[in-house]
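Team,

Forwarding the record for the chain on the shared tracking sheet. I've put the sequence and predicted structure together so nobody has to dig through attachments.
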Amino acid sequence: MGKEILHFDGFVCPTHEISAYIDGELEPREELSLETHIFSCETCFAELNYQKEFLNELSHSIKLQGDIELPANFAETIVAAAESSVSGLRKPSERSNAFVICAVLLFSLVFALSLDSGKLLAGTVNLFEKVAALAGFLFQLIYSFVIGFGALLRVVGGGITVPGALSFIIIGVFFVVFLVFARTLLRFRRT
């Protein structure tokens, strides 16, 4: 509601407060001040009566109409409209402001951490070295397993003269047995 102020002969009438007075939204001190003004100002007194008459007529016309029938899907329509228009509540400038604030906070965090950068950098390098050592160990383990498995296949494949399909079945069975054994071993070590 806009704050409408009427000027009469150099006197300012706060008509915007009359509707708040009728609705009971004023503080007691403001209410007393407005009542004092209304009883001394004919314009505000008339405005108060006009707004009261308007509200009475509105209430009377609503009572005469009875219950207003709403469409069956009224609630669903309102909810769908509200949910679809939620993205429009934010201004694009708010998103860019949020991005700038996050960037400033990130920069501040990096700056604060860089004050103790010797420890931070040393810790990062130490962590990187540990990860690289673990990756190297895993690579060497897999490489050694593949080389050992290949050597085992040469030995097994060279001594047996069976058709090629049967050798693939034997290799598959050997691989499955190895995986089951490794899984059992890992479970045994956990308990």
